[in-house]
Write the structure tokens for this entry.
Amino acid sequence: MRKVGILHKKRLVLVFGIMFLLLFALSLRVAWIQVVKADDYKELAIEQQTKDIPVEAKRGDILDRNGQKLATSATCYTVWVRPQELQNGLSEDDNIDEISTKLAKYTSKTKEEMDKILASDDSIVKIARFVSKENAQKIKEMGVPGMILSKGSRRYYPMKTLASQTLGSVTEDNVGRTGIELQMDQYLSGLSGRWIKESDINGGELYFGKEAYYAAEDGLDVVLTLDEVIQFYVEKAIKSGMRKTNADKIMCIVMDPKTGDVLAMAKTPGFNPNNATSPYTKTEKAAFEKMSEDEQVKYLNGMWRNPMVSDTYEPGSTFKLLTSSSALEEGVTNTRENLYCGGSIRVADYSLHCNDGVHHGDQRLRDAVGNSCNVAHVKLALRLGTKRFYDYLELFGITDLTKIDLPGEAYAQVIPKSMVGPVELATMGFGQGIAVTPIQLITAVSAIGNDGFVMQPRIVKALKDSSGKTVKKFETVKVRRALSKETASSMCKIMEYEVSKGGGGTAKIPGYRVGGKTGTANKISSTGYSSKVYSSFICMAPMNDPKLTVLVICDNPKGGIIYGSYTAAPIAKTIMEKSLRYMGVEPSYTSAEKKAMRNSYAKMPSLTGYEVEAAVGRVGGYGFKTKVVGNGKKVVDQYPKAGETIK
């Protein structure tokens, strides 16, 4: 008995010892949790009990210069659900399968996706974004426990494809992706708010829980220099031009030369920013769906790209306006000098030709520009010399960015001055061997219509709050003087002569003094110059007080006549004529124009010996339609014959 008693005592001591150790360990654990890790667990508890739901800010609108909405934000809703609260709150009469079916219908989800969401173990789940007001109301009327609707917005472009590359688009999270949406995102996006509330483990509201609502701060409206009406004229004209020329793409910029304001900027084909990740046409969509993921990314980047700002091209003869004006300004030529052209000119060990070796003979500067004579402009470039030629490239803004308020602006591709020899200088003189962006060229040429002053191109005019109050203005910027007023005036007359008597006649508009310059330049390929071309036309009007500069570039026109006088100039004419009338610029007819309008007849001009581009332009100036037979570059015969009276 005594041995048994001792054994019991030992067991009791052991049990009490184990209990003591357990209690001691538990005390240490409690102390560790409540003292050492108290702050950490407090934060964890707060995090678990606190639900922080973002309140989306309304993205600011994008407006044209007259207040027309080009991009806005439509009210929509985001649908959230607390699965545990929903499951616990359903009564015996509720049918979870029926609820899932209705929610799937109202949120554009599949039934399988909705079943998975409602069975989730997460405390709160986002069901869908961009739910319309009508569907949100239907969800609310269902009275489903644990369902939350938060108000938000979705980007909407009421004009669809209008100015799509310029406006850009946003991601699904309403963040600017391209264009103005990206460039001005910090102003457009606003500041998101928060809805913070305390809840139980299932996400249900606590009776004595705290709640705080921080309202979102809406984004600012961005007012552009674009004019919706002129933009519409441009897009309609270049779409029509695509059908006529079958070009790969056509680009156009319209600018106010006095302010640098971009009134229109477009490229065709465009895209619909309401559905920016899908091609616009059915044919392109079908091809897009067959592409690999990498190919689709490359396609979309190309579709969103704004080539008027981000791509360079060899301007060809349109660049001769800068060479001529620089030579005039420096006094290495004048408007009376005879610039003889024998069809070619020897520079170092190379012979540089006019198109197809055409001999222009004796000609003044206005004729050299009108004839688009390479030989004359080689002479002018060589007279200027490398240093002065490059000085004027800098003055016209060719060697730097224009600093237009759009993303992705590219630098011109200019040969380093130290590597320029006589041949390189000569070819740059007539617009080859140098590549510029369209925005650089139109900015430089616009200086001719602005008394020689280069303006910084502007596309953002102001920022406004939701009440319409102007928060910030973006003023016009006069960059520098590139030409004297006298030189600019002389060049305006030369540009006007190009349209009235030269190759730009297809842009002639009765009642308006139009000046311009055609250009046709072969495109660079991996093996040198290819047979593909950029055909272009740049013009201003009215030349006595320029209100508009228009640049049209046709990339790789196909079939028949590919010259700028045939492809680009008629497009520019349509845009210019409609825009001037819209702006209230009244036509002023000359006596000759009045006479021609009365009798509706004109005499056929002599075209024999002219280059085809110049001949097409001259005929177009009389309102005649053109058909070219043969594949040469020089006119050897014509019908009707010169001097015949044509209706």
